[in-house]
Structures are given as structure tokens and as C-alpha cells.
Request: fold
Amino acid sequence: MTEQHRADGGSETDETTDHDYDPTASSLKGNVDSAVMEELLSIRSSIDNFDATLVYLLAERFKVTQRVGWLKAKHHLPPADPAREAAQIARLRRLAEDAQLDPAFAEKFLNFIISEVIRHHQAISEDHHSRQNRDTGNGNYFADSPGADDPDGASSAPGQA
Reply:
């Protein structure tokens, strides 16, 4: 059983996702002074908490971008918005510089996220339009069906099972 810290500062006990995770796993055991190993494991524990926080933050970010994808599909907007993406990259590069993080790394990271978001938006759009075409007898299928176009997760979207 592992205690996980959420992005909102709370914690929860997780018996499934980290069940087989050993926070003391290391190839260095037996080759390093025990005091050094203890300090290393303590530092790594903080890294583990940061990693968990990043995962939860990314999950929340993708939940919100799914809502954007549904809105774009509903209003026949393109999945990508190059001007927005360029502005976000420039903004993230400035933030990275202020935080003393390599701006090139920050840009690569954001580009990866943007490509995933666009992929999700394309899938949402294709799904929305195929449903719309299939259900042309019910002209307002997405506008009037409760949950059919629900951006809060009532429908299954890519990456949101």
C-alpha cells in the first residue's frame, strides 16, 4: 500500500497502481556506503512525489483539453490552433528561463503535449462527425442528447477510459 500525494495537496492510499513499486530499488545497493544510500533514497522519495504530482497534473490538463476538443468538434473548428500553440511555446520558454529550466527542454515537452492534444482533438472530431452523419435522422443528436456531447467525461474519449 502506497500513499500518493495529489496535485491539490491531499493524499490518497493507492493499492493498485504502485502495488509492485519498490521505492528502495537500486542497482547501487551493496556498492555504496549505507549513509549515502539512505540519503539517496530520501532524495528519490521526493522525486517520486514530484513524478506522481506531474502525472496527476497531466491527467487534469488532458481532462480540460478533452473539453476543448468536444467544443471544437461541436462547432467544426480545426483540431490545431497554430497561433495559440506558438504563443504557448513562447510563454513556456520565458517561464522556463525564469525558473532556470532549459527552454529547449520545456519547448520539447510542450510540443509533445500539444501533439497528443491535437491527436485527441482529431479523434474527438472524427467520432463526433461520424455520429452526426450516422444519426442524421436525429438532426440535433449532439445538441439535445444528455451526455452524448458531454465534455466532462460521460462519453469515452481517447486517453480518458
Summary: The radius of gyration is 21 Å. The chain is about 60% helix and 5% strand. The first helix runs from residue 34 to 74.
